[in-house]
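Researcher: Go.
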Amino acid sequence: MKKLAILGASYLQRPLVKKAKEMGLQTHVFAWEEGNVVDDIADYYYPIDVVEKEKILNKCRNIGIDGVTSIASDIVMPTVNYIADKLGLVGNSMEATKVSTDKFKMRKALSGAGLPCPKFAFYAESNFKKGSQFTFPVIVKPTDRSGSRGVTKVYDPKEVNGAIERALESSMNERAIVEEFIEGKELSVEMISYQGKHHFLAMTDKTTTGEPFFVEMGHQQPAQINHSIKSKILGIVRNALDILKIKNGASHSEILLTQREDIVIVEVAGRMGGDFIGSHLVYHTTGFDYVKAVIEIALGDFEMEDYKSDIENKAQVYFLTAKPGIVKKVKNMEHLFNDVLLAKPLVNEGDIIEGSIDSSNKRLGVVVCKNISHRGEFSPASVLQIKTTNNL
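Model: Structure:
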């Protein structure tokens, strides 16, 4: 029986563990205990922080793992690829990992190669000065976080340093970037790569809270975009993957398409898209088992063949919110809806909901469904009912 090491144990990793079990693999999961929701299905669970590279490496060496992987998390990728490199397993190089998990290094690599990126500048402390190269508004973000953590849109130069402080506090390495704000349609491109060959799977439309934090609140596949623009986007993304030296595994590239149809790269991640994009939407819109493919690549046993999807299903992810207060009731009614694939609360009764949604971990629940043409015909809140009382 082959042994697979999986880094991370949140609800986003659960589909990966389940798929590995379906494939007859022995699963070894590494993650801190807080938020662990996979130990009931994993064969072995080790409460080791995912950034503890040497500890996990030594354990994996003793176990004799055949592959190491993760999905939907930037934080774990340096450890995943470090272990793969040290044990001679399939992964991406440490050089590629350092660039693809640092927004500043990524911007330098992509813009240096002539690909379209926002104008940007690096900050290790809050020392932004008036009269800089930027016109306003600008976006301030940590260099090393996902899920909209620490991201702020700023209109006034006087407020930039405060936003930089917020980004530095959210950053693992206390690094931030300021970049020009570009108005446009937000898209992501889901790809799978093996031995340097990049295969397109799906394109995703995104919905966010808007300014100032731009937390993602919904996703839909396939994206509503014409064939010509789609081809141009795919050409740019393939070039970006080559420049960043992402050769193996999933990738999730975020793109802005302006009203003038200019294409701008927001970022390229060498991992599967989170928010159930990779684990659920791709399969239900294309028929391609993305999670299985990621595992097969980690094991060095992948064949893309000539994958072409004739499926034209629609699938959506909706995240739920509620008024600030104490969660009074959480009721899951997914059994009443044929097209609902998943409904999951992200809070419990008695939890306190405070303030606005300024990062993805402030979202209260998620509903994944298929074949629903637009939100006007469907209410995610009727599937997953989350009620709060304002008696704080």
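Model: The first strand starts at residue 3 and ends at 7.
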